[in-house]
Write a structure and sequence with these properties.
The chain is of the alpha+beta class. About 40% of the residues lie in helices and about 25% in strands. The protein folds into 2 domains: about 70 residues, no CATH class; about 100 residues, Immunoglobulin-like, CATH 2.60.40. Strand 4 and strand 5 form a beta hairpin. The longest helix has about 50 residues.
């Protein structure tokens, strides 16, 4: 009968297909393990960069790697802190480069939003009463978005479409520098 031939054919096909299926599944498991090991290696390298590298570009790369490959998510604030840790000594109203700080020292914006930054004199170490006199002007630059002078000392930063962490730099006519960080978040959907 035809049912017997069909059963025989299915048994033969099963005997032939099983080794192929085992090989395919084994290959998928091996690839998955290799991918997991590669991801773990990227995470180890990123953590090493954050622990030892002080360049902003390397830290930003490390934060992006962690966000992509780490199974443990972290907040935008933590991401920003990791990326800008090398500038932490310059980012406070109480800290800052002797003689100059920026207020606010950080901002979180959506694309298209803006914030004004103001330079302020800061105490010079060893002379807590002395504040820098800032004659002349302050120059401004930013690693993303757009920044323009909005008066003699003030600047207006407008967030661009690129999201992530950016650095705003104020440079006084005396050559003093101060930094502020800007985190541009994607708009909620």
């Amino acid at each position: 009968m035809n049912w017997d031939k069909l059963r025989e054919w299915l048994q033969t096909a099963g005997l032939v297909a099983i080794p192929f299926l085992v090989a395919i599944m084994g290959n998928k498991v091996a690839k998955s393990n290799a991918t997991r090991e590669t991801n773990a290696e990227y995470v180890r390298m990123a953590v090493d960069v954050l622990a030892h590298d002080s360049t902003h570009a390397a830290r930003v790369w490390a934060v992006k790697v962690l966000a992509r490959y780490s199974e443990v998510p972290f907040s935008a604030a933590a991401e920003s802190a990791f990326a800008f840790a090398d500038y932490s000594d310059y980012l406070g109203i109480e800290g800052g480069v002797p003689g100059l700080v920026i207020s606010p020292n950080h901002a979180t914006l959506f694309p298209g939003q803006w914030v004004r930054f103001y330079p302020r004199g800061a105490p010079i170490p060893g002379d807590s009463a002395a504040l820098i006199n800032m004659p002349g002007s302050v120059g401004w630059s930013a690693t993303g978005g757009t920044i323009r002078r909005d008066g003699l000392w003030v600047a207006r930063f407008t967030a661009g479409q690129d999201t992530g962490d950016f650095l705003v730099t104020a440079t006084s006519s005396q050559g003093l520098k101060a930094f502020a960080r800007v985190h541009i978040r994607p708009r909620p959907r």
